[in-house]
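your task:
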Amino acid sequence: MAYSGIDEMLQSVSKIANVTLRRGSGQRIDANVIKQNLWTNELPAVDLVIRTGGEPHWSSGFMMWDTSDAQLYFTETFWPDFRKAEFKKVIEDYMKKERRFGG
């Protein structure tokens, strides 16, 4: 699947701007309006992201809106070798975290 979080956000903003222009400038743009215009509008926010392969970076703004408060876990293990034991380790680590949601 070809995906770009930047493309997703640009399309969302463009859709909102087009609706606002058609209806006049009275539409209030808030987090709910943005979420409803994303490609991922039917998906819940992400709590945990596991990045395999030892690369501590975010690919092309991947789901930037939905992962904004997610806990990130980076592992040196490559995806084909990622097994149940490693997943259990990730979940145990996640359960120890205090979720502050940006605070």
Remarks:
- Residues 5-23 form the longest helix (19 residues).
- The first strand starts at residue 48 and ends at 51.
- The CA atoms of residues 86 and 92 lie 10 Å apart.
